[in-house]
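[Solved] Which block belongs to which protein?

Original post:
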Amino acid sequence: MSSKLLRGTFVLTSGTFISKFLGLFYVIPFFALVGNEGTVLYNYAYVPYTIFISIATAGIPASVSKFISKYNAIEEYAVGRKLFKTGLVLMAITGIISFLILYMAAPTLAAMVITDPDFIDHMADVTTVIRAVSFALIIIPFMSIIRGFFQGHQSMEPTAVSQVVEQIVRIAFVLAGAFIVLEVMKGSLVTAVSFSVFAAFIGGLGGLAVLFWYWVKKKPMFDELLLRDRKTIDISVKDIYKEILLYSIPFVLVGIANPLFQFIDQLTFNPTMVSMGYAFNDAEHAFSILNFQAQKLVIIPVSLATAFSLTLVPAVTKSYTEQDQLGLNRQLNQTFQVLTYLTLPAALGLSLLAEPFYTVFYEPDALGAEVLEAYAPIGMLFALYAVTAAILQGIDAQKFNILSLLVGILIKLSLNIPLIKLMETKGAILATALGYSVAILINLFVIKAFSKYRFRLVFRRGILIVIFTAIMYFVTKLVYYLLTMFLSPDVKLEALIIVAICAIAGAGVYFYLGLKSKLVNFLFGARVDSIKEKLRLKI
């Protein structure tokens, strides 16, 4: 890959990771303000919103970028500009239509999750917060095509910066809005949560302002490219959007996978728990832990590993296109090994330290710790699904993403209620694990069939990674046991100390083993040696 492409990929990955990182840590003060009841209301609104926004925008930046890059490569710059101009109008219309659909569907969606007749007033609350978040749909699709246009010109900075600014503005409004409503104005929890979800619209305005600034700055360069247009291709708007649609569908499916799994829980969890004799309030408490509190923490190890692994996918695409089998095997080996090396110990470490982690981020809660302990390993599946789906796009087999996702969703839908009845909250987690596992197996089978890739090296290295992870796990467990003899995981500060010391001990052992065995060198190359020199390590 060229240095410009590598730099662009790094900038975009960094922006995405910082955005996700900020989106994780705001939950600490937010939970302190609104509590469990507030987070469950927040989640009722955000899951359907995420599905809508994913359908409206998930594939747009990537597909627009791919389309514009294709025609820029042959100096047909006017084709990309035509897409941009018509796309702005189309996305504005799409955004308004999406907003109207979600706004009007809010009472129906609320009725689907609040099935207990004793909680009719609660149904109105859910309707209010869903309608509050729906306004963001007006602006986000419009932003997505602007980001795609910049990315198509290999200008990743506007997307990265706008994502970070959008997240900062959103979080500031979430926390300020909830604080002012609850602490200053002594208003209702529903009003506070409504302000918090409306923050998605305010954050969108912040991101749009950044994109507009970059457009003013870069427009002379884009206009100069237009003057060099070869004018040999005149593609119709209909053909443009036919091509865009084919590009975007796989991205949309990958984008809505996790929200769809969450939405199945949202529709089935409470009614199933109530049918088993649980009070509706208790069912909601468990649902909030499952779909908001625990899920937010599970994404921690997934974000870094997935972001790093996905930076290798462009190289996979290049090797496959050039029919470089040796290069393709090397890139796939590195992608799977890096993913496993980073995600497996992080997921198991989070599971081991579930109780103090939950206390640090939220409050002491036996059910919360139990659910997080069971849910944390599923992070490995989230990361593996995202990467295998991206590889399918890289080897031009993206249509199989549709098959794998549909099968995975069908399994989740079929097993969720029976497993919840059998295992309560852990049943929903197991149904998610089974759905994702089957989807991943289908993706791996297609990767093997299309790329003629053999998993032998990954399997052998995977065994080594599992051994190192097991050693790390037992060392961390010993340290955890010793610390809990005089520190309590139910006290925030003491829980934070436990997490910090255990994380340092576990990570230190794990990376020492990786360095000593040279596994880290195989995975990350020359960068490891330069880091060792700076730290003066002689391992």
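(Second protein starts here: sequence line, then its structure tokens.)
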Amino acid sequence: MAGSGAFGDPAAGWKRHIVRQLQQRDRTQKALFLQLVPAYNHLLEKAELLVKFSENLQQKPNDATSQHFLIGWQEEESGPDLDQSHHQPLSLQRLPCPPVWPFAPARLQMAYQVVKKSAALDRLQSDLEERKSRLVALEARVAQLQEARAQQVRQVEELRMQNAAQREAYEALRVHAEHQEAALRRLQEEAHDLLEQFLQRKVRAAAERNLRNERRERAKQARLSQELKKAAKRTVSIGENPHTLGDGIREQTETLSLAAKPESLESEACGKWKRPFRSASATSLTLSHCVDVVKGLLDFKKRRGHSIGGVPEQRYHSIPVCVAARLPTWAQDVLDGHLSEVNAVCFGPNSSLLATGGADRLIRLWNVVGGRLEGNQTLEGAGGSITSVDFDPSGSQVLAATYNQAAQLWKVGEAQSKETLSGHKDKVTAAKFKLTRHQAVTGSRDRTVKEWDLGRAYCSRTINVLSYCNDVVCGDHIIISGHNDQKIRFWDSRGPCCTQVIPVQGRVTSLSLSHDQLHLLICSRDNTLKVIDLRVSNIRQVFRADGFKCGSDWTKAVFSPDRSYALAGSSDGALYIWDVDTGKLESSLRGPHCAAVNAVAWCYSGSHVVSVDQGRKVVLWH
């Protein structure tokens, strides 16, 4: 047990207690047997002595002596002085001579008790041995458990050391990350300051350039006015050659070519001067009329031919007009166009090129060939989910609004973004080209609408609004924005203020302007479509249908190219088409879409419709 206690385990105390108890019991039982064995030996000796006395008594029988001996034997058996009488000499003892038969049963009983006690001793001995063996096994088990415990303690120490090392590394990384975040904030602040300085410099440069252009234009107009006045004061005789006079006037009017004078007006003026003059009064009237025509051209140039900076506006060629659109009836092609939800779709002006944009930050261009959609190109580089896609009227550029607080411009045929229009402070929800070249408009959830000069990637104007902007459309000189506060706002691109506000029921999700710019289609979250007549600025039609529900805040509805129908997708995957003139539901298309339809597009030729949904599907309808 000393070996087992050497481990220093406090739990070994109960083992020592058990061993002490076993040893105490062993001593107690051994003491009993130690008293029993001498008594048994003493009885054997007495039995031999009695045998000898019985032999002697048989030779000399004596009843009195036998009785006296029997009484003495009983006294000796019952008294405590058995050992003392046994050691006395035989001559001094009074030995009775009882008969032999009374002593046989006593001997047998004592022998039986001896055998019984021996068997009990053997059992106790075997039990003791078994318990000793169990004690040895338990001591071995205790040794194993102590060794396992020591191993677990070592593992705990190692893990504690690893944990401490990892905690130190984590603290170091956290401190480093805090330093990096602080450095990032400083860099962002510096970048913001640099951007503000850059924008201020660009604003100043634009203002100076506008001032120079305005001065140059005023000087040019003053020079032209003086030359025209001189030409008007000239006296022409009847005999003067009209061709020479016409050449002189043409020389004065040739300077108007800088203002892009229409050829028809120029030919008309030349034709008048080439006619032979009949009188001086006729000549004077013709000169006065020429002055009026030139002044009218200058006024027209000031009204329609110049931007804010005085540079002539370069308008796109006219977009083809559809005479009669065809109602779609069946799904001609179904594709999984994107890796995730598709948010926007738009046809190019030639009706054969299609653009789709989605939450996977990609814009895919498709060719409509033989009633099928064939992949053309993938435009990459968007910083966030695409919310709006638009082609310019020439079909050579694509403009997209993203969740990355910016709009991005691609050139068709180039995979990477050409320009990034950054300046918004929240998600950009709409981006549209204007009808004049190199100009665009964006709307954002930061409650602003911005006009952009795409040639310089510069924000030329910022319009602050009281509500989120969900969509914008552009006319000749008007910008229309739809907002989250259930209002439509009209902005004159040549003026600073809002010209008109039209309230509608429900949050506005999309706007669609007819080709003649006389009607506006509105989709709102009250599950209705509305048509506003811009000539009288009131709601002309309200479209509803059983089952039609606007699925999201960016659900897009469109006019057909001939403005005869209004098309929108529902949250149950169906397409609904209304007749604009009668206000009745013309048809509803179901089938491929199993999720909410986010946007629809009707090609300019009126022959195809494309719809996209939240389940990645792009469906071509014919």
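Accepted answer:
You had them paired correctly. Confirming on the second one: Residues 1-7, 62-102, 238-289, 293-312 have pLDDT under 50 and may be disordered.
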